[in-house]
Amino acid sequence: MSYKINEHILLRFAEEKDTSLILEFIRGLAEYEHLLDTVKMTEADIKKYVFEKKMIEVVIGEYDGTPAGFALFFYNFSTFAGKPGIFIEDVFVKPEFRGKGLGKIFFSFLAKIAVERDCGRLEWLCLNWNKPSIEFYKKQGAIARDEWVTYRITGDDINKLAEEYNKDL
To answer: SS3 for 109?
Structure first.
């Protein structure tokens, strides 16, 4: 499904033929965030989670027919609100297409999806040094949730914690 936004910009949901393009966008974002060495995602992972299991969704933005950026998102849930939400994992616009309105269009499109799918919120994370993005988010009406601290368990620590569960059985 595609949506012509204006004479230059088209948004469309990714198709399996976009697998390598999605990985290119992920790597581009990681490079911007100085995290390229941490990318483990493969084309097989994209095929598995986007197209087979449908655990994540991807929207591609094109500018004059050229892939210019993407948004990758999935559902979360608020037990207090009793509604799902959309968690935006990644939004990336290639440098040569920045300043053309794609970022705002991605966020407004995801808001439209959230409303259509009866979601109660949009959420995402931002690195604290990324001042241009923070200012952009504030202009969209976003509010930083400074009272919440993100915790994460990865790699061997997940395995160790899972083993603790097995020991308790």
So the answer is: helix
